[in-house]
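Thread: quick sanity check before group meeting

JM: Hey all, I'm pulling together slides for Thursday and realized we never actually wrote out the predicted structure for the chain we discussed last week. Dropping the sequence here so it's in one place. If anyone has concerns about the input, flag it before I start.
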Amino acid sequence: MDFQRFDRYVDQHAAELLSRLEALCRIPSVSAEKGPAMAKAADFVSDLCRSAGLATEVVPQPAGPPLLIAQGGAGPRCLMIYNHYDVQPADPLELWLSPPFEPTVRDGKLYARGAADNKADLAARLSAIQIFQETMGPLPLRLLYVIEGEEETGSQHLFRFAAENGALLSQADGCLWEFGSKDEADRPVISLGVKGILAVDLHARTASSDAHSGNGGIFPNAAWRLVEALHTLRSPDGQVLIDGLLDHIRPPTPAQLALLAELPLDVEAVQRTYGLRNGFLGGLKGVDALRRWLLEPTVTINGMWGGYTGPGGKTVIPAQAAAKLDLRLAPDLTPDLALQLLREHLRRRGFDDIEVVDQQDGLLPARTDPDALIAQAVTRAIRSVSARPPVVFPSSPGSGPMHELCGIHGVPVASAGAGWANSFIHAPNESVRVADYLEAIRVMGRLLATFAE
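JM (edit): ok, ran it. Output follows.
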């Protein structure tokens, strides 16, 4: 199929396509804050769907932002697309070089909260669907677009929708997932799965009130108690130490291990991108680092607090301390099982006084076979546009409701998108490169044709 007219349209309307993304990024749709911006973002995305020629249904949720279902096209094959219109909080604000919800272009990059995660992908895909019909003709397949507003807070209402709408979702022959980026060498990355996740708080309480630190030699200290418990969960080289947890994971398949063997990993480039002072944990390199990064469980301390943290000093023994953790999970390791193993591990080591609080519904891991049609179609679409050939990851190190939306209905999934190695997703100064955003539009156009063939 000749895409000259499609590409010409993108070139001629590049400023308009960028302004569409800027308008979406201007809406502070932080799902954790549950403000009126969520409804505004849903309305804006609904308009984009309708402008793309898709029949769009706004599905209200009882205690959250609406879910959007957009459909269109005709043909024997059905492509599902999943995105979300919510974003992470922008804190810490003082580290942003420009206001997070005032999109700013500097040096060919658009800076805004949500630009890479994942409003650029959302806007690019809907733009491509519109442009395809205006320049190439009717859509050659059926499209089922699922867009939610709670991905950053756990996709609570998506679970119920997916469970109640199996007949709708199971018609899909494959799904294009919400995220993606280029690596440090500017190679597009395709991911064929996600890890599961369990998020918990650990609470330690050792006294009814703080005490003078002069008693530190004999009084229990909640902060020390918590640190001692946390120390048992992971080794310094990053290996999970929770009793029995690694025994429950499914070994990687030969095809997944073959993908690892083919993946380039420039440790020094990653180190420069993130400013890592000492390389990877344990000095891991090559396939060993990739296996730990992409396929194995992790335990991460997201934050800790307790005692006095203000300016100056205050000589106290904290009576309370807490930490937020997430556990990333590999196949066959469910959030419920991981929670049970964590509690048993702490109790077995005498930390039964540490309260473990489950913070939200966990997510199950998901994997797609590298030979799946969606994986091959995404690869072909990127190869036809990108200056560099793509690399295929057997899984993303992150998480999302991939199993809950697609896996339970037998829908294989692949992910690729408009981010880049320095997008700083979930961090200050999040960005996408304008050229990558326009390239994502071209890739999506090709995917519509490639997946339909």
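AS: nice. The radius of gyration is 23 Å. Residues 115-135 form the longest helix (21 residues).
JM: adding both to the slides.
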